Amino acid sequence: MIRLNAFFTLKENVSVDEVVAITNELVAKSRQDEGNKGYDLYQSTTDPKVFMFCESWESQEALDKHSAAPHFTSAVPALGALTADGLKIERFED
Predict the structure, then answer these.
(1) Which CATH architecture has domain 2-93?
(2) Tens digits of per-residue pLDDT, 26-83?
(3) Fewest Cβ atoms nearer than 10 Å: which of 2, 23, 33, 94?
């Protein structure tokens, strides 16, 4: 199994509502992707501008399909434009 934790910090002028508009659909559709074992978004309780996606994938093939899906390829660039320094991804495997 593959676990990805993707961290991002919003730019100062970006509202949480802007992020929610993008991420709600991404999370809902990603949970339906074949091979998805979990897909959640968390907001920091110490800094409300910091978020983390927690994703679990059955295989690299499932992750590759997800990465090519329209809901991913449209949401990630839109989300990236709202971040202070992009998404920082940590990958774990068992």
Answers:
(1) 2-Layer Sandwich (3.30)
(2) 999 999 999 999 999 999 999 999 999 999 999 999 999 999 999 999 999 999 999 9
(3) 94
- Per-domain residue ranges of the chain: 2-93
If you compute the radius of gyration of the chain from its CA atoms, what whole number of angstroms results? 13
Question: Any bridge partners for residue 93, and if so which?
Answer: 2
The answer to whether the beta carbons of residues 33 and 82 sit under 8 Å apart is: no
> What pTM does this model have?
0.92
